[in-house]
Amino acid sequence: MPFEMLLSTAEHIRMRLPIEKIEENKDNALEPNKSCWNRFTTSLKRPFRLDLSLSKQDLDHYTAIYSSNNPNFEHLFATLRGSQDLYFTPSERILLTYELLARAHPVDHDKDLPQEENTTRVPPRNGQKRSGIGRLITEKAYESYFPLHEPLRDDVRHIDDDGLNDREKLRKHWATMRRCFKFQPLSLIRSYMGEKIAFYFVLTGFYNQMLILPALVGLIIFIYGAASVFTDTPTSDICGSYGQSTYMCPRCDLSCPFWKLSESCVYSKISYVFDNIATVIFAIFMSLWARLFVEFWKRREAVLRYEWDSIDFVSILEPIRPAYESKAEPDDQRMNPVTEINEPYIPAKKRIRWFILSVLVVIVTVAIVCGTVFCTVVYRIQMDYLLKSTSVKTYSSIIITVTSAVMNLICSLILSLLYRWVARKLTHLELHKYQSTYNNSFIIKMYLFQFASFYASLFYIAFFKGRSTEYPSNYGEPGTGDFTEQCDPAGCLVELSIQLLIIMSGMQIINNVWEFTSQMGPTCTRLFYRCTLFCFKWGKNDEEVQWEKDHKLKSFSSLGLIDEYLELVIQFGFVTLFAVAFPLAPLFALANNIVELRLDAWKLLTRYKRPVPFKAADIGIWSDIFSGVSYLAVLTNAIVIAWTSEFIPKMAYRILQSTGSSLSGYVDWTLTSISIADYNSTGRMPPDVPSGVTYCRYRDFRSSAAPYSESLIYWNVLAARLAFIIV
After folding, report:
1. What is the C-alpha to C-alpha distance for residues 100 and 408, in angstroms, rounded to an integer?
2. Residue 505, SS3?
3. What is d(CA 344, CA 174) in angstroms, rounded to the nearest whole number?
4. CB within 8 A of 466, min separation 6: which ones?
């Protein structure tokens, strides 16, 4: 593109251009290394650092918004970077070329009609009024447009870095699992792909570094729970003679059998591993970590904004979306206060109905998710009845929990595909003027859909399961059937742990396998085609030029980056919202992200067309989502500790029963007795009453005589739980 055209486009988008080199003060640069702490941290980071040659060797410059009215720029073009041809970097040239193509306003020239100057509208054609390259793509004048990748040789591992271009350097040192424990070459990533994509990889790398400490702490917490399970008094009571002699009431009145407390032995052992004093401490630690992560990321973001010269970056001059322009009436125009040019405009009254529709659809989708959770509840109840009469009744609770979690995972993944299609349709109907507002609206919908889909079953188990006012001989409403779902005597937290483990790990494994296999399919097809062509031409294989190679790659869109951010923020919720339930979540997340980061890098470099290097000052709306999740994590962990775990009841038992640190008799304290004769009074006598049994036990704090109202202990424990949440 001619240099004058680059300058004109840069002025139009208010691009900042270099005006003066920043001379590095070597004395000040060495000053931080004098502290002992800095030398210590530097020595720790040394094994993970990349070679300094991978840094993009471009001196820092002071910049200013370019204006053709400022004569001070003219003498810099040929001197600041050596020559006029080097004044703009390759990524800046790509961005300016894209902006020119996207903002071009082609006009149908008719000699019989007068032409207007500064035309900003495109005459209607086939119902479209699109401007720029988008119109030509729609009318099939062009198939696609994209910046060219730099050439990439098949094997660059044994080639010296001096003989590699930027793409090959990234492929060798970044997009490979061989360097998975090395820092990322951020300056090279930014130079080749732009700040917008670079911010995603910076966030992923920063998140991984922050996960190291929680992963180690969580592993220690898990080992402590597994090692001390055999010394836990309540677990020993359930598995010992007390559990063998204690008959539990049926889980339903009409068809479920009586069972012994000892049948929960395995379940109680697993429960203790994830529900002990150490996991409570870990949950508090993770709540603080979530907030620190957000605050430290803001600092990191601010540093990068300064280093990448994006402090004053604004995106208000982005081009109008073609879909918006095509729906605007010719007479509906408004002046842009920045450019002072009349632009297409769609009144709010024409768009409000679509926003209302979006809200209604979101509500319906949440209801659908709640319906899937209800279906799994029915499944668990039916399976509990079927398995209690089989030889695997000891493991029935674990089998039911695992299978229901797998069902929830499958439903969530299937619904995610549907939700993506629905979100795109709704966002398209809303007619957003700019791509940034379109993306933000799409992000909010997708996150709400994914939040409901993946977290609904977790919230149900954590906050609602086993909270009904029903009790044996009074399960279900009269005439509505024998229906209820109660927690195991060991508590509901272990079920939450298993549910979280399966959904989190399953989602990550399936996504990574799908990403890899979906990218390898086209590769295998191309290899087969090349081999066939080579054999057909008897050894003659013409080398493709770069644009032909790139044309066969997938197109990269901003929605692809949204998917990566969405996967990251959903995982962040798994790690922080229910930290008390699964201390190994940070370790699993870290292991996944190490692979995910290099897989994403490999995809962008080898399987996608080169992305336009858009500038950015931050990660946008994702910062607000991360911040919101971190605040929610404090609340959810407090409620899970108080409401779902055994921490508060055990503390109340020690205080109310004055046992000190001993939990001897705790299991018996949490169980309430009900007379078998009371089943006759309701007409709901369970089958196969054990001989000699006059009463059975169930988990609740109620009186042992009719009408079985809540006991004083219930209100004491409830007050303690509420006090813990408030404090």
Report:
1. 48
2. helix
3. 44
4. 485, 486, 487, 492, 699
Nearest alpha carbon to residue 307 among 93, 90, 60:
60
Instruction: Judge contact between 710 and 470, C-beta under 8 A.
Output: no
The DSSP symbol for 555 reads P
CA distances from 561 to 102, 200, 230, 622 (A): 20, 8, 48, 12
Contact 106, 623 (CB under 8 A): no
Query: In a 10 Å sphere around its CB, with 0-12 CB exposed, 13-18 middle and 19+ buried, how is residue 315 labelled?
Result: middle
| Neighbouring-strand partners of residue 671 | 699
The DSSP symbol for 87 reads: S
For 124-179, the pLDDT digits (tens) are 343 344 467 877 887 788 888 889 999 998 888 888 888 888 899 999 989 888 88
Q: Report how far Cα 53 is from the mean position of its chain's Cα atoms.
A: 34
| Residue type (1 letter), 536 | F
Res 310 pLDDT > 70: yes
pLDDT in tens, 224-279: 999 999 888 999 999 999 999 999 888 776 677 788 898 888 888 888 898 888 98
Provide the Cα torsion 642, 646, 652, 655; round to 10°: -130
Please state, in angstroms and as integers, the Cα–Cα distance from residue 119 to each residue in 34, 94, 109, 170, 692, following that order.
Answer: 62, 25, 12, 43, 95
Residues 608/556, Cβ–Cβ less than 8 Å:
yes
d(CA 381, CA 497): 19
20 φ, ψ (degrees, to nearest 5): -160, 140
In three-state form (DSSP H/G/I as H, E/B as E, the rest C), the secondary structure along 347-372 is CHHHHHHHHHHHHHHHHHHHHHHHHH
SS3 699: strand
Token code pair at residue 519: 């990218």
**Of 620, 504, 482, 605, residue with least CA distance to 554:** 605
Q: Nearest-5° angle of CA 359, CA 620, CA 459?
A: 50
